[in-house]
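Protocol step 4 of 5: obtain the predicted structure for the target chain.
Materials: sequence only (see below). No template structures provided, no constraints applied. The aim of this step is simply to have a reference model before the mutagenesis design in step 5. Sequence pasted as it appears in the construct record:
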Amino acid sequence: MRRARFRFHGDLNDFLPAAKRGVWLEYEFQDRPSLKHAIETFGVPHPEVGEPEDLSPLLRDRQEVEVRPRLYKGPPDGGEWRFVLDCHLGRLAKYLRILGFDTQYDARLHDAELAEAAAAGRFLLTRDRSLLMRRQVRLGFLVRSDDPREQLAWLARRLGLWEAAEPLRRCLRCNALLEPVEKQAVWERIPPKTRLWCTEYALCPGCGQLYWPGSHYERMQEWIRSVRDGLERAGGSGPQGGA
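Step 4 output (structure tokens):
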């Protein structure tokens, strides 16, 4: 029987029982599993791992492996954050859209479809550990908290999201980018009282939803300010995860 040892750092300890956190853990094996396979037997999904960077090599006898969380200073491809969320995270999906992030969410999507979206480059956010462990998933987090506000604050800190936020530019229903539209072009759709004071309108090219800066818009702006202030009080939104 061959043996190796693993020690997990930072947020990766969230996946381990208290007695196994931050200490060397013994791993016995006969065939030579990959690092990915061995790490995931401890319950740690591979997309959460930053070091070792390559998890494809086969495990060696008596090997000692320090496993650290993946840290992000921005989108891995240098573009924009693009998310896909499972059916348990509908409120978080709405919050991300309010902040302007490309967020694919449909409660009817099956695990295979979510994994396919992740394989195409979207960052998977899920409450299902086994989904995150699927081989084709490259980027993603298991969302720990049940509370949507806590979920957003945690995610913003882990990914440094606040600096990339462009609030109120996406449709909250379908995720499409909103487009400005002339008042006269949508005159019949505007409530009579709103016509008297509002001159700025935006239309969703995806589902046709009409938006204007009414009281709901003001409430969302206040919510955005409260989220920002909460992050600043908690120490900013820079990348975190532990050493």
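Step 4 remarks: The radius of gyration is 22 Å. Residues 215-233 form the longest helix (19 residues).
Proceed to step 5.
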